[in-house]
Amino acid sequence: MPLRESIKVFRKLLPYITRNWKWLLLALLLMLISNQLATLIPLLMKRVIDEAIANKEFNLLIILSIAILLLTIGTGVLSGSGRYLGAIFAQRVVYEIRLRAFRSILSKSFAFFDKMPTGQIVARVSSDVDRVAEFLTRPLMGFTNALLLSVLAVIAMLSINLELTVVTLLVLLPIALNFYFYGKRVGPLYLSLRQQYGVLASVINNNLMGIRTVKYLAVEEHEVEKFRKENNKWLNLALKLFKVQALHRPMSTLIIGLGVVIIITIGFLNIVEGRLTVGGLWAFISYMFMLLWPMRIAGFFITAFQRAMSACHRVFTVIEAKEDVEEEGGLIELKNVKGEIVFENVWFSYDGKHYVLKDINLRIRPGEKVAIVGPTGSGKSTLIRLIPRFYEVNKGRILIDGCDIRKIKLESLRRNIAIVPQEPFIFATTVKENIAVSKPDASMDEIVKAAKLARIHDFIESLPKGYNTLVGEYGVTLSGGQKQRIEIARAFLVDPPILILDDPTSNLDAETEREIVKDLRELMKGRTTIIVSQRLPLVLEADRIIVLDEGRIVEEGTHEELVRRKGAYWKLFKDQIEAYESWVKELLIVEEGENA
Amino acid sequence: MPRRQALRPIKAMLSFIAPHRKWLAIACIISIMGSMVSLVVPYILRSIIDHDIARGDFVRFLSDIVILTSLVLAMWILETLNTYVLSSTGARLVCDLRFKLFSHVQNLSLGFFSRVRTGDIMSRIMEDTGAIEEVFVYGLVAIVGDMIAFIGAIIMMSSMSLELTLVVCLVIPLALAVCLLFGSRFLRAYREIRKKVASLMIKAQENIAGIRTIKSYARERDAFISFDEACRDMMKSNLRAAWLAVWFWPTIQMVRGVGSFVVLAYGGYLIIRGSITLGIFIAFLSYLDQFYRPIISLTWLYDSIQRAMAASERIDELMREAPEVKDREEAIELKKIRGEVVFEDVYFEYQKGIPVLKGINLKIRPGERIGIVGPTGSGKTTLVLLLCRLYDVSRGRILIDGHDIRDIKQKSLRSQIGFIPQDTFLFPGTIMDNIRLGRPDASDDEIVQVCKELGIHEFIESLPNGYQTEVGEKGFLLSAGQRQLIAVARAMLRRPSILILDEALSNVDPRTELLLRRAIERIMKGRTTIVIAHRLWLCSLCDRVVVIDKGRIVEEGTHEELLRRKGLYYELYLAQMEKLIDEKLLRIRPIRPS
Predict the structure, then answer these.
(1) Are the beta carbons of A370 and A449 closer than 8 angstroms?
(2) Helix or strand or coil: residue A496?
(3) I need a surface site. Which of A3, A112, A367, B72 has the fewest CB within 10 A?
(4) Structural domain spans, chain A
(5) Considering only CA atoms, which of A99, A35, A475 is closest in space to residue A319?
């Protein structure tokens, strides 16, 4: 990222920094005093050498030594506390950013999550924010501190000898330059090394996930070879990086060493001419080492700043992404919902250009069961996701019991709707809490009742700790059907007037599918239900079937009507209908076998 | 902890670095040389101050300056070498160790992989090796250097003034005390932070992966509160570590201060008394810094050393894991075989005392097709895993063409068997690459040829990029049925004598099912075939059906015979049919488009 961009990002970070300015100021103040004390030490040393020792004043020697001891301890106390205050500052800033990011993530519409993979989002609220914290604690505080220290050191040096001060500064300049170029060269190398590390990790991960395949195909050697190749690539990159490191880093030893030689030479001439004392020379060498550190930091600071700002940029893109579903004023709470859903001239587009839904008009009566079918990409999943306002319609409106959903409080809207998704999601917590996700304050009785209705109670009871078993513990894993039953139990628990089935059986085997359809039949009783499915058994549960194609409603009717029409519906389900018919034939063979 | 056990991680660690000892030794030598050179510097300084400046000796000063300059150059060269040798040795060490671990893991048997989680193996190969690199390369050698510098400083100082050196050495116990006092505390504080970081990650991961569920039920507030808690916890543990630093720095400074105080006060006194020169005094002041460096680095390294110990223990544990299935020394290579398979009184248990197979006796003639049927958990899949020798039988034996499979090299055995598993795993890469896995040395033409023979060539060509279509992570872009087509092609590529087919459970769309059916019928031709069947059309293709229940063979015969017998097979069949077709589906029967 170019420096200008980094500064732009930093400006966005500023409000968080200024909000905690007191801590920062206190921290810097303490460090300033500590630095001031530190720059006094070489001056005292000079007096020790030039006055106390030269004049053999023992009392002065003791007094100065004690003063130096106290000053040293004092700088420790002050810089230690300064660091602590700095840590408080950084932690508070980061805490605020993290929460802000998470809050905005929670408020995003589904469009956001469709675009960005989970791992990416997680990295942004965890490791990216951590990187900002690191920057605020070490490089930022360190750099400010170093800047102050160098100003103080230069002032102190000027008070001893002008010529030597100028020489010292000239010597230190190349060090800063060296670190700057080092940072510039090493940055991209670091990046590619880290990428290669990721490649290596995914090779191992894939190998372990597919280890059974590797074993029965006996291609272990092939896999080892694949790993060796990527591993060597990593090594070569690492060696390249280390070469750059080895060339640049020790350079400061060289420059500082030569600097000392130059200072001593000039110092020697000055001492011979009586313009400088031995103590003064010693003080200069001490200051020089004091300045080395800020130089080193300055070089690193720029790379650290760039790296932190690119992390920060990633965090802010999450915060600023405009995917929020806005809540309007005059929010209505839904009460005693009957469950009538009306789509009025609804248009929807994900990108603002291509419409996925075009002028949808649909009235679903309270308690009616409607199936929405259509080829992949016809817009059927989009249609149902508009009802809980996971996305916002572009044109037209959706009404529940006659009320525009945009006027309803989001929470109130969503708590009247339950969704059984295509891919059930199970949290890594207890079975009980997994069911209670839909209603965290539910009583145990309610949860058990919901589990019984979803016909998963007996299974849960058979687990080592019953409802309190952690999913994943004792190797407890749930099959696809069991996960889907947990989702069904969640829906039973909230007991909503409106139910949405988002293709919940497509990932199940045929037998489990039939079982789950039976459970869903119970769940649908007395609720307005919208079913999206590619599977015939579930579609057959509906009172009415809507066929979507390219965002428009093309057919509508009962299964029998649509089959007779031999239109889009028949084309969609012909294969499945025939497959079921062949099963029926097989059943007849069994019946014949029985009769024989 | 008993002593031997405590020593084990150290021993393990030493064995990991043994192959790199040459370079590490070189690094140590360079580091020692560097320390020695830097020790001479204050000595020269002393000569400049005491001799050259005091007497205004310009010639001697010039020669001193030349020496000083060459010392600086030597330091620079040594540091450059040291930096490179160290970090490249570290990279080689970690690269080597990773490779050894990975190859070792490849040789372990399936039993191991069902026992140990993927993430665990992963972190041992990737992270633990890194921890060892860190401590060896950046830690131990730095400490060696610091220690040498420390000892060297003492020697140089004693040669200048024994008295002052003894007084300065009083600082050492103080420094050690600081190291002990803070080392373990920092260790604990950082461990705490790492734990909190991990739990924050998990929280974020959970909430974001489950965001659709959370939003569906409008439970954002609960998610927010629990995340806030994790953030606060993390902040607290960070501040606790920072609080330690508040105490650490003044203490370090105090040790430092005491050191300078001693040199200043006592050294000054000695100069006034005339026992040492001003040059010695200044040399002492510059040696003092060598005293604190080991303390500071030891305190910071405490944490990484502990981590490296834990890491090497974990790596060692993985290295000690021995494969359960091993090639015997006198194991043979199989030539072309006829494909006769015999199970002789085979018993098998995954866990001691819980037999899964009990006395299986089964003889399969070359070219015969056997269907294996049984309820879930009856041991069907285990039976075929044993035939591939992915596990070893607990009792009895399995013979192929009269050879006990334990006398055959694993690779040779498996290359004779085509196994089409229930769920096909695809590696990220193209379809071509994935099929080639059946025989890594097969050419593109051979693969296309095999697909044509199986009748799936047109299907693959119809994909966006044909054979070069990327299958995506875990093969997500293909359906389960399509993945199984790839598995059939993989098996066919091996031209196996024995074919094992574990039929898929999940829904396969009718078009793919047709392709699959045809491909399977073709690959079965002329091969000894064992089919674990869930659908009945597969059983009707078999010469013989074996019914397994609770680890025993309970029925045997043709599909028709078994149906007529009305035993377990008939029951299973009926139950399956009933589950597949309920009253609602029967509605579709009379309706046909007019």
Answers:
(1) no
(2) coil
(3) A3
(4) 1-157+297-324, 341-560
(5) A99
Contact between chains at A76 and B250 (C-beta distance less than 8 A):
yes
Q: What is the ipTM of this complex?
A: 0.78
Average pLDDT of A91-101? 92
Q: Which residues, in sequence order, are CB contacts of B192 under 8 Å at separation 6+?
A: B237, B240, B241
> What is the per-residue pLDDT for B535?
67
Look at chain B and count its residues: 594
CB contact under 8 A, A53 and B272: yes
* pLDDT tens figures, A144-155: 878 888 888 888
Distance CA A291, CA A286 (A): 9
pLDDT tier at B1, thresholds 50, 70, 90: very low
CA distance A83 to A80: 5
| Average pLDDT taken over every residue of chain A | 85
First-to-last CA distance in chain A?
A: 80
Q: What is the pLDDT of residue A579?
A: 67
User: Tokens representing A264?
Assistant: 């001593």
- The string of pLDDT tens digits covering residues B447-474 is 999 999 999 999 899 888 889 988 865 4
Domains and CATH numbers, chain B: 1-161+304-323 (1.20.1560.10), 341-585 (3.40.50.300)
Across the interface, do B87 and A231 touch by the CB < 8 Å criterion? no
| Residue to substitute from B52, B215, B564, interface A, most A β-carbons within 10 A | B215
- Measure in Å the smallest separation between the Cα of B291 and chain A Cα atoms: 16
Residue B119 has pLDDT above 80, yes or no: no
Tokens of B305: 């050393």
CB contacts of A436 in chain B (<8 Å) are none
**pLDDT, tens digit (0-9, with 9 covering 90-100), for A533-592:** 888 888 888 999 999 998 999 999 998 888 888 888 888 887 777 766 666 666 566 555
Query: What is A341-560's CATH topology?
Result: Rossmann fold (3.40.50)
Residues B468-494: what's their mean pLDDT?
A: 80
Tens digits of residue pLDDT in A188-200: 887 788 788 888 8
- DSSP code string of A107-127: TB-HHHHHHS-HHHHHHIIII
Q: What letter does residue B470 receive in the DSSP assignment?
A: B
B-chain CB neighbours of A264 within 8 Å are: 45, 48, 65, 68
Tell me what pLDDT residue A583 has.
64
What pLDDT does A266 receive?
A: 87
Rounded Cα–Cα distance for residues B541 and B558 (Å): 10
Residue in B75, B201, B206 nearest the CB of A253: B75
Q: Which of B53, B118, B421 sits opposite A278 (nearest CB)?
A: B53
- Listed by number, the residues of chain B in 325-344 with a beta carbon closer than 8 Å to a beta carbon of chain A are none
* Residue of B38, B48, B216 to mutate for A, most A C-beta atoms under 10 A: B216
Q: How close is the nearest chain A Cα to the Cα of B462, in Å?
A: 17
Nearest beta carbon to residue A264 from set B48, B209, B238: B48
The three-class DSSP label of residue B8 is: helix
Q: What residues does B545 pair with on adjacent strands?
A: B371, B557
What is the structure's pLDDT at B53?
A: 80
Percent of chain A surpassing pLDDT 70:
93
Q: Does B273 touch chain A (CB under 8 A)?
A: no
Helices (H), B380-443: 380-387, 410-415, 431-436
| DSSP class per residue in B244-296 | HHHHHHHHHHHHHHHHHHHIIIIIHHHHHHTSS-HHHHHHHHHHTHHHHHHHH
CATH class in words for A1-157+297-324: mainly alpha
CB contact under 8 A, A217 and B75: no
**Closest CA–CA distance from residue A9 to any residue of chain B (Å):** 23
Measured between alpha carbons, how far is B205 from B203 in angstroms, rounded to an integer? 5
pLDDT tens string B306-355: 778 878 888 888 888 888 888 888 888 888 888 899 999 999 988 777 88
